[in-house]
What we know:
Layout: E1 3-14, E2 16-29, E3 35-42, E4 48-58, E5 66-69, E6 72-75, E7 82-86, E8 89-97, E9 105-112, E10 119-131, E11 136-148, E12 153-157, E13 161-168, E14 174-178, E15 181-185, E16 190-195, E17 198-203, E18 210-221, E19 227-232, E20 235-240, E21 246-255, E22 258-268, E23 273-276, E24 286-293, E25 296-303
Antiparallel strand pairs: 1-11, 2-10, 3-9, 4-8, 4-10, 5-6, 5-9, 7-8, 11-18, 12-17, 13-16, 13-18, 14-15, 14-17, 19-20, 20-23, 21-22, 21-24, 24-25
Amino acid sequence: MAKGLYSAFDSGTLEGVIDVNSSLGPWRLRSSNPETKSSVVIEGRPERVYLLVDAEVPERLSPAWRIILNDLSLTKVFRPNVVVGDLGVEHALTVYDVTPIVRQGRNELKVTYKGEIPVVVNGVITVALYRAEKFSTTFSLEAGELVMDPGEERNERCEGSCIAFLKTSVTAKAVVESDNLRRVVPPETVEELSFSKRLTVRNESQKGSVKLFALFRSKTVEPRIAVGGERTSGGIVIAYEGDVRLNKLIVNVLKNGVSVVYKVFEGVSPGDRVTLPVQDLESGSLVRAVAVIAGYRKVMDFKV
């Protein structure tokens, strides 16, 4: 029977959107390789921001490690929220509410450990909740340590958009079926699994463990966001036809999949028209427009 569990640390309905960012290992930290670094960009002023760090340590080891956000040390002592022991290893997950100390723009994250006995860091994940006009998101943010032995499986259902995080041990592999796709996750791998209907994770190894350590569920009702475009003598004119103001409209002109023209327009309102100056453009060129509202992004393609 699977060991441990994961449970919700935040849930409800948000008049806005949720943005998940992950930096995944595994990284084996010790004196000769003492730290791992990552970063996350925070758009605007988030309602709440959570930081999750998943790690594995030998049983009865209490490493003197540090988790640092923007040069502020969150901890000097290994005190995870959840610990599950399995075959001499402690699977440990720590969740922090870092809302008061994140800043707009780029935030730097660092985990450091200088001991001789290695500590494995599987991933550093941030979840930002933003208020956004005319958006409504029902969500459940779940985390913990669910460790599956050989032959065991876990089934999850989703209505909307869901993300799960999985880790296979050095001697194990997982078979993952997400919606209508089936694939194998090799040993000693950390993966982010996106699905919209169902997820099955099965440990198909003779030995070793497969674990899930986070699951984020959300269902968003969003306003209309659409663009139209036409070629003119001055370039490409893009009309924004949505119902809410955009923080940014990012526009790329692509040729054979490569960007040839790139421009960012700030503060685009419903009914606005913006011009992308470009000459000698081949007929039928692909234009990719990305609407950005807080942590929400919508990609729209059209040809001109």
